[in-house]
Write a structure and sequence with these properties.
Largest sheet: 6 strands, mixed
Oligomer: single chain
Order of helices and strands: HEEEEEEEEEEEEEEEEEEHHH
Strand content: 25-35%
Distance between the termini: 196 Å
Structural class: alpha+beta
Strand order of the largest sheet: 2-11-10-5-6-7
Radius of gyration: 63 Å
Low-confidence stretches: 1-20, 291-319, 324-339
Number of helices: 4
């Protein structure tokens, strides 16, 4: 048999079987896919069969998690003309075949509402004895950056250094931060130092021209979020004036406290002095010695009643003139039997009558003792 005869035979076999190699997967798209969380993805796995592939059709999708320590998990199966979509609990209700009848040549799989934990290597395996074919996909589910927080760190004063910070709590790495000014000249200060990984922008020796609104954008391969911060650079305060005012306030406070203490001490000393003077007056006042006791006066009045009744202007010179203008001295000696009896503070007329006193009218006299 010559070479031409061999080629004719091979062509006849291809025409009869429909394929020189049996079952084949015909999808040609990218096998490395990146998606954001919450999105959906279709993993293409279309195939063709040959006449020699006469066995039952079996389709199996499996997952090798990104953590290689975990075992391979079966996700979805088509066998015996039926689809079984509840093999893998984390994807339960979110995975299904793209075609309601995969045996027509479409074994593609759809995954809904992607999560970061869905990241891994997925394999499509189609088997129809004697043909077997497979295809792998690397799926990376990324999380969009969360809304970042922007703020200023440091004094916003002329000549000072400050740092503008921007940070997202969530987001699949690598995250990149971009700063821009959106007011004024819209140009970043000449002394600005950017850190796109850490999300900071340092402003050294700030000037009033650095004032304005700044925007920070946090982004990765699947999304972008932004925030804004207002910067107002002002002149530094007069430190010397503040210190002087503080010293004056402290001195005034001390003087006020000293005055209050002085007034309190003086009032207390004055009150104590008045009490001492009152005690001295009570101790030094002698009992009254210019008047005789009530009992003696009563006796004198009774004994002199007759004498006073017989007085007349013609014989007044016979009686000695009492010296009313002299106060008895302290050396005045009273008879022991006539000790002074303290008079009651108030003596009414009826009381004197009960005590045997007799009312006597004493004529008025001048200073020299003569009767008026």
């Amino acid at each position: 048999m010559d070479l031409r005869t061999c080629w004719v035979c091979l062509i006849n076999i291809i025409l009869l079987t429909g394929s020189a190699c049996g079952l084949q997967i015909t999808s040609t798209g990218s096998t490395s896919i990146e998606k954001a969380s919450g999105e959906s993805v279709k993993l293409d796995c279309e195939f063709t069969l040959a006449a020699v592939d006469s066995g039952p059709l079996d389709i199996e999708w499996s997952l090798q998690p990104s953590d290689n320590q975990k075992e391979e998990q079966v996700v979805i199966v088509y066998s015996g003309d039926r689809a079984f979509e509840h093999y893998y609990d984390p994807l339960k209700g979110r995975v299904h075949f793209n075609s309601p009848d995969p045996k027509i040549g479409d074994a593609s799989m759809n995954i809904m509402s992607l999560k970061a934990t869905d990241t891994g290597t997925y394999q499509c395996k189609v088997k129809k004895v004697p043909g077997i074919a497979s295809r792998k996909f690397l799926l990376t589910v990324m999380v969009r950056p969360s809304k970042p927080r922007c703020y200023v760190e440091g004094p916003t004063q002329v000549g000072k250094d400050m740092v503008l910070r921007c940070s997202s709590v969530e987001g699949t790495q690598p995250l990149k931060y971009i700063w821009e000014k959106i007011t004024g000249t819209k140009l970043l200060p000449a002394m600005a130092v950017l850190d796109p990984v850490g999300g900071t922008m340092s402003l050294r020796n700030a000037t009033e021209a650095s004032s304005g609104t700044y925007r920070c954008m946090a982004q990765n391969r699947v999304g972008t979020e932004e925030c804004m911060v207002e910067v107002n650079v002002t002149q530094p305060p007069n430190t010397a004036g503040i210190i002087a005012a503080a010293v004056i306030c402290v001195l005034l406070a001390l003087i006020l406290i000293a005055l209050i203490l002085f007034c309190c001490c003086r009032a207390r000393h004055k009150k104590k002095y008045e009490k001492e003077i009152a005690y001295e007056i009570r101790e030094d006042v002698p009992p009254p010695k210019s008047r005789v006791s009530t009992a003696r006066s009563f006796t004198s009045v009774g004994s002199q009643r007759s004498s006073l009744g017989s007085m007349s202007p013609s014989n007044l010179h016979e009686y000695p003139k009492p010296q009313y203008d002299k106060i008895p001295s302290d050396e005045y000696e009273r008879p022991p039997s006539h000790a002074p009896v303290p008079l009651p503070s108030r003596m009414a007329g009826p009381n004197l009558s009960r005590m045997g006193a007799i009312p006597v009218m004493i004529p008025a006299q001048n200073r020299d003792g003569s009767i008026v």
